[in-house]
Amino acid sequence: MDVRFLGTGGPDGWPAPGCRCASCQRAAAGPGRRPGGVLVDGGVLVDGGVLAGGALRAGAGRGAAAAAGYAADRVPGGWDVTGPDGGRLLMAGGPGQVPRPPAGTRPFDLLVLDMLAGPGQLGALRAQGLAGPAATVAVLAADHRISSEAELARRCALWGVAVPGDGDTLSTTRPAPGAAGPGGPHRTLILGGSRSGKSREAELRLAAEPRVTYLAAGPWPDGAGPAVSGPDADPEWAARVAAHRAARPAWWPTLETTDVAGALRRLDGAVLVDGIGTWLTAVLTGAGAWPEPGAGPAPAGQVSPEAGGPGAGGPVPGHRDPAGLVAGRVEELIAAWRQTGARVIAVSDEAGSGVVPATPAGRLFRDQLGLLNQRLAAESEETVLVVAGRVLSLPG
Question: pLDDT: is 240 or 272 the higher one?
Fold first, then answer.
């Protein structure tokens, strides 16, 4: 089947008439996008009415499509169309709709999806074997839900999704440029400050992958971190954890551990490590490396051999060399990062851009995290900085 895109925008196109949002103002400078609709093999029309919930038709209606040798079935959130040549098309039923084919469905050759409704839908289809490596995936219903055409192109490149323009034609038999399946750098380090959008960027990058392990670099050792449940629960912390869980696809398995190196050695597929700052806090605490209250700052890049954990009153029993323990864990992590067989994205805090911390513990954490970020960046194919939700790729 050949699928011609009569329009590729949302229900009002892009820019939307009369809309003064920043996205539409940017889109006004380009060719723009008409309301979405496609023409299949020059005769079967899926137009803006279908995207709003109408009926697939060839001429007068669905019966004509069937008579012409096409099988067109409604599935939750979209259409499943098979052409006379056996070509298979899955198409979203409208802006914001996510098609969910039933179990036992045969794989598709071309998938036309509203990726702005959630890129995780593509990861789920790939995990089910419905969008194989040879399938072409294209975005439809592009509009001001995203900031710009450039950002749409960037994200779709990460997901292995084509971005057709109005009038373009894609085929179930010929792969489209830019639709080569998910992929990306083997190792990516994502840096950013608090609430910068760094975790969201990491999740976006892996959303279209069929297999992703979310590695939560915790829990905090010996209950040192905020509680999520129980009599000592911190409601604000629990809300943060819940928000993180809700933002990522529900089918991603979660692994909570401070043994990040061990996980990187044994896991395959894709791994999201969130985050390096939490891991380092746990390592410092477990090694008894925190300076005691009132102690002077530890030398940059080192920890005090006499230091204990917060409130511990001295070194952790049996930890004669906290500095050596921390250094050993860092070297173990770097070695695993260098040799991992998984595609891995790690999130870390860019902690050195503010004022000098007022406490020895704060300075210790800042120095150790800054040095660790440098080591990870040196061993990564890509390092990006996220500022106010905007992504800056750092030169190698």
Answer: 272
